[in-house]
């Protein structure tokens, strides 16, 4: 990725997003292959990777019994910062994230959005080149989510490369310049939000047959129906995509009357 890019990793819970982040953060080793962050091999040079990155996990790492300032000071010392440089850095981050007025209050008194901003600030204390945000807005109300989106966009504008995992399609569309959609540990689609939306427009059609059908003839028959595409058959399950599913379904059934069972039509609302 280019410096200052926000790359979105999108998928349902259990798709492998958090595991990917753990591998790239050197918290777990990949089963195979090579993973690099900022050009650094995560297996060969884990210490160098850790110095280059910041990471905000799904669950808040804020110490709610400490103040906002104390959380940042402690995190800075973990990274070897100290003295006037650390105090200046803490003050700058508190101001940037709108937390200066609450800096000396215990974090337990912060709203969910404020705690999440403090999380992001702690991840930036050592000026990382790459920042990992693992589902950063989960559980936030719409106003707090939109506020954090602004901050994430500012990070990229400042030249920080961001890898964002999310299951909110709107979030990925709003922030990411490139996306990868993952499922069961595999990338099933990758590209720009605009490109992926163009590919996935239309309706998804799901049909359950009365009994298994010969796959090849059925696929050929349905693929010949106007506006129907991407036909797949697995046992008694037929899946297809169409620009106007409501109009395509009668034509599909006419082409193959055995399909007249348990029809489900889903409008696709992607990104």
Q: Could you name the CATH homologous superfamily of the largest domain?
A: P-loop containing nucleotide triphosphate hydrolases
- Succession of helices and strands: EHEEHEHHHEHEHEEHEHEEHE
Strand order of the largest sheet: 4-5-6-1-7-8
Quaternary status of these chains? single chain
Strand content: 15-25%
Question: Regions with pLDDT < 50 over 5+ consecutive residues?
Answer: 260-271
Q: Could you please describe the fold and organization of this structure?
A:
This protein is of the alpha/beta class and 271 residues long. It folds into two domains: 6-197, P-loop containing nucleotide triphosphate hydrolases (Rossmann fold, 3-Layer(aba) Sandwich); 200-267, Alpha-Beta Plaits (2-Layer Sandwich), CATH 3.30.70. The protein has a six-stranded mixed β-sheet with strand order 4-5-6-1-7-8, with helices on both faces. It is elongated. The model is unreliable at 260-271 (pLDDT under 50). The two termini are 21 Å apart. The chain has helices at 17-24, 46-52, 68-78, 83-96, 112-124, 142-157, 169-175, 193-199, 215-223, 245-255, and strands spanning 6-10, 36-37, 40-41, 53-56, 130-134, 161-166, 178-183, 186-191, 203-208, 228-234, 237-242, 263-267.
